[in-house]
């Protein structure tokens, strides 16, 4: 058995755009969207219901379609990071990383020695893989969320930490931390988010963003290549178009 390729990580290395979809919560639903061509599934363990006991089946469904399983956890704790990886996730998203020490903690929990301090265990991804402990660091993906104004203030030291694959600028908490809760289009919020993304790209690192049909092209122009988008607006948009088309046929 060969270690499965992390599709999202591979595409980033090639300079390609990576698309991750959130709002998919069941293995059958992962199967249903598998043929669409998403690069990965965002498994929500901070605000959503994803638990460690469910990760085996969720990540197996991603594996079947060659999609990267991206699991967001709710705490920057090394044991939680590597337990989630042990359950089969190929990528970890850690919230509220606000300084270099917190970024280094993500690396320490997510990478085996000599890069980190991940506990010695063969993940589900490593079953029957020769020398998994020596190969895992190559495919494991670490994503930190830049979602507080203090993270923007400390951004240079955060992006200097080696081993982080994506520095993802998350808008909602970012806006709230600036005193503009719910106002993602406030000029100060837009300015700070744009500045953060630009600085990440300028440093030669990978920037990530929450994207919609309306803003994704502009983010690509900034150099962002890693995107998470929600399934909900697409479902709603398709349904509304269907209803409009049906009503237009009325006589």
Quick recap:
This protein has 12 helices and 8 strands. It has about 250 residues and is of the alpha/beta class. The chain has one domain: TIM Barrel (Alpha-Beta Barrel).
Helix content: 40-55%
Kindly identify the CATH topology. TIM Barrel
Which value, in Å, is the CA radius of gyration?
18 Å
Shape annotation: globular
As laid out across the biggest beta sheet, the strand order is 1-2-3-4-5-6-7-8
CATH superfamily: Phosphoenolpyruvate-binding domains
Average pLDDT score: 96
The number of distinct helices, counting runs of at least 4 residues, comes to 12
CATH architecture: Alpha-Beta Barrel
Domains, number:
1
Looking at how many chains there are and whether they match, the oligomeric state comes to single chain
Q: Roughly what fraction of the amino acids lie in strands?
A: 15-25%
Extract low-pLDDT stretches. Answer: none
* Termini gap: 61 Å
The CATH class, by name, is Alpha Beta
Structural class, by secondary structure, is alpha/beta
Write the H/E string, N to C.
HEHEHEHEHHEHHEHHEHEH
Largest sheet: 8 strands, parallel, barrel
């Amino acid at each position: 058995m060969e270690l499965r390729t992390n599709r999202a990580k591979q595409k980033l290395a090639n300079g390609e755009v990576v698309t991750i979809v959130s709002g998919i919560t069941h293995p059958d639903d992962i199967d249903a969207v598998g043929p669409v061509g998403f690069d990965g599934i965002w498994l929500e363990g901070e605000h959503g219901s994803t638990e460690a006991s469910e990760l085996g089946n969720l990540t197996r469904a991603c594996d079947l379609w060659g999609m990267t399983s991206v699991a967001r956890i709710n705490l920057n704790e090394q044991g939680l990071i590597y337990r989630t990886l042990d359950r089969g996730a190929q990528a970890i998203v850690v919230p509220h990383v606000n300084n270099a020490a917190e970024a280094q903690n993500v690396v320490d929990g997510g990478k085996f020695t000599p890069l980190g301090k991940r506990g010695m265990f063969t993940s589900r991804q490593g079953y029957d893989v020769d020398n998994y402990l020596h190969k895992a660091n190559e495919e494991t993906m670490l994503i930190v969320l830049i979602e507080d104004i203090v993270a923007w203030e400390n951004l240079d030291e955060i992006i200097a930490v080696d081993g982080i694959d994506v520095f993802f600028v998350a808008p909602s908490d970012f806006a709230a931390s600036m005193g503009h809760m719910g106002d993602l289009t406030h000029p100060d919020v837009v300015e700070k988010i744009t500045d953060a993304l630009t600085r990440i790209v300028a440093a030669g690192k990978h920037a990530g963003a929450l994207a919609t049909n309306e803003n994704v092209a502009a983010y690509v122009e900034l150099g962002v290549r890693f995107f998470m988008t929600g399934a909900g607006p697409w479902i709603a948009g398709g349904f509304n178009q269907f209803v409009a088309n049906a009503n237009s046929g009325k006589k």
